[in-house]
Every structure is written in structure tokens, then in C-alpha cells.
Amino acid sequence: MRTINAEVIGVGTELLLGQIANTNAQWISQQLAVLGIHVYHHSVVGDNLERCSQTFQTAHNRSNLVIVTGGLGPTEDDMTRDAAQSIFGQKLVTDEESMERIEHFYVKNNQPMSPNNRKQALVFEHADVLQNLEGMAPGMIVQHESTAWVFLPGVPSEMKFLMNQHVLPFLKDRFQLEAEIASEMLRFIGIGESQLEHDLADIIQSQTNPTIAPLASEGEVGLRLTAKAASSEEAKRLIETAKTRILAVAGEYYYGSDNITIEEKVLKMLQDRGWSIASAESLTGGRFMDRLVSIPGASSVCNGAIVAYSAEVKERVLEVPKFLLKKYGTVSEECASCMVLNVQSMLESDVAVSFTGVAGPDAVEGHEAGTVYIGLQLKDQQPIIRKFHFTGRREQIRNRAVKKALEMIFHQLKK
Predict the structure, then answer these.
(1) Please, which domain of life does this record's source organism belong to (predicted)?
(2) C-alpha distances out from residue 240 to 54, 186, 189, 353, Å
């Protein structure tokens, strides 16, 4: 198999301005990694013809696989085709199948089609056209000199459709990817990335196949295992062997693999026990329960939530005694404890969780932003109240509080 130097380019000024995140590049790199293709460069260029052309020329000189997302729309600032034309020297022609689908969309929706929408059906005359059944602009594969170019829409759903249906099969054939690749993402919570790497240092340093790549995210850590073998069965066996070694060391923090989320895991654990859950939320404002009820089947577990943001509502609705609020304050262990006990009783749940604290930016009752108390009550056990000091902006603090509560519930349920 020849060496593949892959590169991903995102086109769009909105990416440079931070108006949207370049999640396309991240997803594409993940898919290429599964195939054993390494991405050596990520680039983002704005809607400027000269700079876009320069970026493309640089990619052409150093990479033999270039995947471009964005800039295939109908407006004047969609100039991916024009910039690439300076390299290929190919004519742009109308792809009739794409044009027919675009026209049909406007007829079906009783909307007039402006002339510039015809631009979306333009493709290079020698391109392999990738029909976009999720949108309008087709994708393209152009093989020029020693470089394979892939052009995809910037809309994530359209990009992923074309990658899965057309691009990944093309790459397997084009680069003769004969080895079978297996990959699994192990997910851990309650342990930091540096500690997990330290605990698994011997395994990580000695492992070559599969490779082990740590990946930290908000409040948890992932380990991506990627194995190559002559058959898919052998690749999966290599993954399973490495996974067994890893879990022998850090299994107490492992909650699942691949696309599972911690809220899905917690919901499943509650369902398996036949237990219900409720929440009393101040600074999180219902965010905890929203994370759970977003999962199909949550109605079998989630009894409800009481959002008690003000001291008055904590007193009147959650029945937190006025003397307690006056003596200890709303941001306190005592308030969190009373909230969790009362919401469990009021909503008749097996498990309850409470949140009170300071999301910021200003201090409250002498407590700095990021001070959070989380209460957890399981059945008739003693409530568990923990104090945290989260860093970050207001939304980060609220999200970190929710993630920490899910972590607490997970570790208590698996005992």
C-alpha cells in the first residue's frame, strides 16, 4: 500500500470568524483514521479567491489526498470551484441529474428558483460526480496528476452522506487499502486524562497494534483503539485483547464504548433496576433533566424536575425552611441536602439529584463563581453532598455540574 499524505480543507469565512465550528474536519479525520489513512494537515480558508487558490496549490504540492468541504453553494462567495479550476484547468459543466433534482425541489415547494441556483449543479468535466441525495450541490472526486481531490458540501449531514456512500468506498479502492481496520472508542469518567495515561503507561508505550490514542473531552476521557489485520475477525480480536488489558487496570472508570453517552449509560442502569429519578435544579435550570429526557425511553425513568432558581421558590415550592436559608444560605451543603431530600419525596422517585451554586460571573453570598453543591439521594440511603469549584464561563460551569452529577450517579449505581 502506498503512503498516503491526506489533508482536509474547510472553505468559509464563517469558520475563520468562529461563527460555526469546523466539526467537518474532525469527523473526516476520524473516518480516515479508521481506514488507516493519516491526516497531516487541517486548513481553513475564507471566501477569497486568491487565498483559496493559494491554499489549494499548497495542498496539491504536499498531499496526495485532499478533501475540501464548503464553498459549493449558489452565491458569489462560494468559490471553491473557481479556486480549484486554476489547478485543474478543467471546464465546469452542468451535471444534468443534479440540476433536475434542484429544479424539482423548487417546484415541489412552490418556490421560484433564482438563476444563481444553477451554479450548484456545476462540476468539473472529468470529475466523478457524487449525487447529493441529502441536499442540492453534488460532491466531486477529481484525480489530477498524483493527487486525488474530493469536494463536498459544507453542511455536515450532506458531507457525511457523501463520505459514507461514495468517498470511503472510493478511498479503499483508490489506495488499495487491503488491510482490515477495526476501531473502538473506550469511554471513561471519574479519572483525568493525565492520570489515565499514567496508569496505562506500560500498555500504551508497548502497544503497536492496536494503537492507543487518548482523547480528552468535557468531564471524561476516551481511548481510541485502532487495529490492522488481514481479516476483520483478527483485527477485532486484537482490539478485544488490548481492551481486556486496559480494563484490568482502569475498568472501574469505564462506562461504555463508541457512541454511547454517560447520560445514556445512567438511564440504562436506572432502567435495569426499575428505578426512577427526579431533580431539583437551581443553577442548572433544568439542564440535567433535559439531558436525560432527550433520550428515547426516558419516560420509564424520569419522574420530573423542579427548577427552583430563586430563594423564594426554594422555600415555597421545594419547602426548604426559611431559617435554613437564612442561616446557611442558598449556596450551601445544607440547602443542597434539603433540596434533594424534598424533591425525592415530592416526586416519589428512587433517585434524586440537586444543584445549587454560582454560575457567575459575579459572586453570590460570598461564594465565587464556580462554587457548586450537588446532592445525590439513592432510595433511603444517607444523602451524598459534594462541593465543587468549577472553572470556565457561565455555560461551562453549568454543563460541568451536569456532567459531574451523571458521574456521581454512575459510580454509585455500579457499586
Answers:
(1) Bacteria
(2) 45, 11, 20, 36
- What's the CATH number for 6-174? 3.40.980.10
Say how far apart CA 104 and CA 97 lie, in whole Å.
11
Backbone angles phi, psi at 4, to 5 degrees: -115, 120
Q: In the β-sheet with 128-130, what is the strand arrangement from edge to edge?
A: 39-45, 6-11, 65-69, 147-152, 139-144, 128-130
Q: What is the mean pLDDT of the chain?
A: 94
pTM over 0.90: no
Residue pair 223/230 in contact (Cβ under 8 Å)? The answer is no
Average pLDDT value for residue range 213-235: 89
pLDDT digits (tens, 9 = 90+) for 341-355: 999 999 999 999 999
The CA distance from 44 to 69, in Å, is 10
Asked if 46 and 16 touch (Cβ cutoff 8 Å), the reply is: yes
Sheet holding 371-378, edge to edge: 302-307, 277-281, 351-357, 371-378, 384-389
Q: What's the pLDDT tens digit per position in 39-65? A: 999 999 999 999 999 999 999 999 999
- From the list 309, 378, 303, the residue with the least C-alpha distance to 347 is 303
| CATH, domain range 262-413 | 3.90.950.20
142, 105, 107: which is closest to 120 by C-alpha? 105
* 180-257: CATH, from 3.40.50.150, 3.40.50.1580, 3.30.70.2860, 3.30.9.10: 3.30.70.2860
Poorest-confidence range of 152-156, 213-217, 237-241, 286-290? 213-217
Alpha-carbon span 267 to 30, nearest angstrom: 27
Tens of pLDDT along 77-91? 889 999 999 999 999
Q: What is the mean pLDDT of residues 113-125?
A: 93
3-state secondary structure of 299: helix
